[in-house]
Amino acid sequence: MVIAEPVMQLPRHVAIIMDGNGRWAKRRGLPRIEGHRRGADTVREIVRSSREIGLKALTLYAFSSQNWSRPMAEVHTLMELLRDYLVNERTEILENNIRLTTIGDESRLPDFVHGPLNELKTASAGNTGMILCLALSYGGREAIVDAAKRLAEQVQSGSMRLQDVNLLSFSEALATSMLPELDMVIRTSGEERLSNFLLWESAYAELYFTETLWPEFTRAELQAALQSFQGRERRFGLTSEQVRLRATK
Ligand code: IPE
Ligand code: IPE
Ligand code: MG
């Protein structure tokens, strides 16, 4: 008798709040920006690992709507690092069949980011291996307001009926509608909050918090998070018995 290998129950879509760059640098007596630089190296490593592991989508919280209020010099360097990432990772992203997308208010990004960002989005549009979604100038509340506006406009113009505003049409009005259902949110650096990230989408996502600072986050830690995901029972409001009954059907 052949015993089948247990199939690892992988989350389809993982989102990461990449936090702790500043503290990583501070602990070493380095400027915060050094932490961001090291953080960008971690991004490379984790994108590669996610693709190899077989995630369908990875969303990275790279810059929040609220992060614009940080000191101007830090914001500027973060934008430069973003541009460098897009330029340097272009080949790797394309060769690995990764599709790059974004969520957030792109209009606020500087022109030197727009160029490489739009170019890579277009060049990778047909890729099917994994979606890499960068949350840039992103806020979950802002995204919900945007979706509400979009629906209101449609109702006002008569192209949608008020009674058709429901969970499904609302989800479809969000910028994340092109991504698979969000299964897991990881946050590094020991903070246990969402900080305005994917508020609607995380309704039933499994949360995973680790003390590790983002520059020190590794593939092994990602795997530990995925392992933790496997051990969880997602009940979606049902009883445990109902969930188990469904799984055997
Ligand atoms: C996360 O690291 C990166 C961004 C928010 C852009 P932080 O810069 O927030 O690092 P800490 O929280 O100050 O350590
Ligand atoms: C969340 O981290 C935003 C990103 C990781 C891009 P913050 O460091 O901005 O969040 P708070 O301020 O600790 O809540
Ligand atoms: Mg932080």
Brief write-up:
This protein is an alpha/beta fold and 249 residues long. It has 9 helices and 6 strands. It has a single domain (13-248), classed as Decaprenyl diphosphate synthase-like (Undecaprenyl pyrophosphate synthetase).
Which SSEs are present, and which pair or pack?
Blueprint: E1 13-17, H1 21-27, H2 32-53, E2 57-64, H3 72-88, H4 90-95, E3 98-103, H5 111-123, E4 130-138, H6 140-157, H7 167-173, E5 184-187, E6 206-209, H8 219-230, H9 240-248
Parallel strand pairs: 1-2, 1-5, 2-4, 3-4, 5-6
Helix pairs in contact: 1-2, 2-3, 3-5, 6-7
Bound molecules: 3-methylbut-3-enyl trihydrogen diphosphate (IPE) (2 copies) and magnesium ion.
Describe the structure.
The chain is of the alpha/beta class. The protein has a single domain (13-248), classed as Undecaprenyl pyrophosphate synthetase, CATH 3.40.1180.10. 45% of the residues lie in helices and 14% in strands. The protein is built from nine helices and six strands, in the order βααβααβαβααββαα. It has helices at 21-27, 32-53, 72-88, 90-95, 111-123, 140-157, 167-173, 219-230, 240-248, and strands at residues 13-17, 57-64, 98-103, 130-138, 184-187, 206-209. It has a six-stranded parallel β-sheet with strand order 3-4-2-1-5-6, with helices on both faces. The longest helix has 22 residues, at 32-53. The chain is globular, with a radius of gyration of 19 Å. One 3-methylbut-3-enyl trihydrogen diphosphate (IPE) binds at residues 18-23, 63, 67, 78, 189.
Search tags:
six-stranded parallel sheet; binds magnesium ion; Undecaprenyl pyrophosphate synthetase; binds 3-methylbut-3-enyl trihydrogen diphosphate; 249 residues; alpha/beta
